[in-house]
Design a protein that fits this description.
Layout: H1 2-10, E1 26-32, E2 42-45, E3 48-51, H2 52-67, E4 73-77, H3 87-96, E5 101-105, E6 120-125, H4 131-152, E7 156-162
Parallel strand pairs: 1-4, 1-5, 6-7
Antiparallel strand pairs: 2-3
């Protein structure tokens, strides 16, 4: 239940939620992808380079500020500046903080002007390890994508289910 509340609470960035009651604090760790020497995707526009690492940090900071407003929620970030943090360190940090939810924030740059290529989507683990969490994540991402598509005019490309890239933490 606590994990569901944390996921539902995170939707406050997209949907208005007025109250959330949890008997114990919900712990959310936000991971702004890339950083430091890891530029991530980038695009050049009007002689400026926009890097994924910078956009991820701005979005993650906005999430942090929003979620920190709620009582009963503890929010942490894996990085708060332009530093390189390894994937294993990100996961270790979330475990150390006893996170109920770990959000990894990323953006893509495909270069195509097609709405379908540049639309909205959510990556969700196939959830073979804990299928009930996949179902909760899918339900919440569907709501967020629908709302964001309506308000932004972008195409809702739906959920992309994928297998984990590790055998240490199976799908």
């Amino acid at each position: 239940m606590k994990k569901f509340l944390a996921l539902l609470l995170s939707m406050s960035l997209f949907l208005p939620i007025t109250t959330v009651h949890a008997q114990t604090p919900v712990v959310v760790v936000i991971d702004p992808g890339h950083g430091g020497s890891e530029l991530g995707a980038y695009v050049n526009y009007n002689d400026e380079t926009y890097s994924e690492k910078d956009m991820n940090l701005k979005m993650a900071t906005a999430m942090y500020n929003k979620l920190s407003q709620y009582d009963g929620v503890k929010v942490y970030m894996t990085r708060t500046d332009d530093s390189t943090v390894s994937l294993s360190s990100r996961i270790a940090y979330a475990k150390k903080m006893k996170a109920n939810v770990l959000f990894s924030v990323h953006v893509n740059a495909k270069g195509s002007a097609s709405k379908e290529d540049n639309g909205l989507f959510a990556l969700i683990s196939n959830g073979h390890y804990r299928s009930h969490l996949r179902d909760v994540a899918k339900g919440i991402s569907d709501l967020a994508l629908q709302y964001e598509a309506q308000t932004s005019g972008m195409v809702n490309n739906g959920d992309l289910l994928r297998n984990s890239g590790t055998t240490t933490y199976p799908n």
